[in-house]
Design brief:
About 0% of the residues are buried. This protein has one domain (about 15-75). The protein is built from two helices and no strands. The protein has about 80 residues and is mostly helical. The radius of gyration is 17 Å and the shape is elongated.
Length: about 80
């Protein structure tokens, strides 16, 4: 059950913005892991040599990691 918000959602509200950023980070992490693991599954199933998969996975994981660093460490949500 998603959390109930006491007022209409407003991006100007710092608490709502913080929650929204964390939900977006979770969605980014889930998409990244699903796509990378799916590609790795198909690569192993086919026995293919996909040399691009390693750099692709590393780049996307680094981008999600930087997003996590920003949301969890550097972002400030003062009014």
């Amino acid at each position: 059950m998603p959390p109930r918000w006491p007022t209409p959602p407003n991006r100007q509200d710092p608490a709502y913005r913080k929650l929204d950023d964390r939900y977006t980070l979770a969605a980014n992490f889930m998409c990244c892991s699903t796509v990378i693991l799916g590609l790795e599954f198909w690569r192993r199933l086919q026995g293919a040599e996909w040399i691009w998969l390693g750099p692709f996975a590393l780049t996307w994981t680094a981008i999600v990691g930087l997003n996590a660093l920003w949301v969890l460490v550097f972002a400030r949500y003062e009014a």
